[in-house]
Each structure stands twice: as structure tokens, then as C-alpha cells.
Amino acid sequence: MELRSLFTRLATSALLTASVAANAAVITVDNTDAGFTSSGLNFSTYEPGYFGVNYMADTRNSVGDFGMWDPTGDSEWVAGIWKVEMLWTSGPTRANNAAVTVDSGSSTASLVINQLLNGTVWNDLGEYSFDLSGASVMIDDSNSTSGQNIIADAVRFTFVSANPAAPTDVPAPGTLLVLLGAAAAVFRLRRK
Ligand SMILES: [Ca+2]
Ligand SMILES: [Ca+2]
């Protein structure tokens, strides 16, 4: 292949890759969206910098309060690897040890986040492989003391890639037939 032609192909390929990345699906679930459910949380606009029209805070002297963001109702949701980010508002009574559970649909990952810090910005909680159904991110007050608030505002999911295909050691049936055909052809050539 001519070198110039190769460069053109590489450049086209890079452009395509960049274009896919720029158009990656982003799903933001806010505390006022249909994908959000909660228990023991109250609306607030007390601290600025929230996403949308308000955020929610738990009741300080009760336990069992939670907020849960479910992105699977969005038309852009697919199984695959998604980056998860969370936004909350800062305040002096925030929990420094809020429990967060990322549910892939078939397994869970547990995190502890400090909501005294990094308020009003998107905090990167990592990349996770999600199923088509059952995916969610939950925050609860199981770690926090009675003087602390957990805050539920918005969670943003950004598509990274499809799930990697399961590895296989067995050739597909079609591959085996091709190999057998090739072996038979070699055998016939040798007999001539
Ligand atoms: Ca909000
Ligand atoms: Ca509580």
C-alpha cells in the first residue's frame, strides 16, 4: 500500500473514533426525574450549586434513608461499560462517609464518599460494566451519624464501550469446517 494512502486511511479511522467518542451517550438522572426513587429524603435549595431545580437531603435523626438513581428507563441505555459521576452540594453537616452502592444488575460495588468535599462538581465514581436491566446507583445513610446529612442530587452516566465478548477456546462450527476443507485439499494435492 502506498504510504500516503495508508496515512489517509489512518486519519479517517482516527476521525471516526473521535466522532464516536464525541457522540457517546450521556444520561443524567436528577432527583426530580422518573428514574429517581427515595425514602426519608426532603427537597432543598438551601445550598447553591445543585443540578436542576433542587436537591434532596436525608433526615438527620433517622436511619434507613436512601436515594436511588436508575438510568435503565432512558432510551439511550444499553448494556456495557459506563462512567459514573455524582454531584452533590457542600455543607457543614454533610456525611464524610456516605455509603454508595453501584448495582450492575448482577453484582454490586460498595463505595464510601465524603460529601463534605467536592460539592457542586461532577465527582468520578469509576467505570462499571452494567447489564441491560437492574442497573442503579444508590446512596444511603447506613454509615452516617445522627448529625450528618446524605445528599442526593444527580448522577451522570457516560457510555464508554460495549462489554468485552466472552473469551472462547472452541472454534465456531464454520471455522472447523473451513479447516477440515483446507486439510482435505492439501491431502488431495499430495496424492497427485
Ligand atoms: Ca437536582
Ligand atoms: Ca438519616
TrEMBL record:
Keyword Signal set for record: yes
Pfam families, per database record: Golvesin_C, PEP-CTERM
UniProt keyword annotations, A-Z: Signal
Domain Golvesin/Xly CBD-like: 27-158
Keyword set includes Signal: yes
Domain Ice-binding protein C-terminal: 169-192
InterPro entries tied to this protein: CBD-like_Golvesin-Xly, Ice-binding_C
Leader sequence segment: 1-24
Name of the protein this chain belongs to: PEP-CTERM sorting domain-containing protein
Organism: Paraglaciecola mesophila
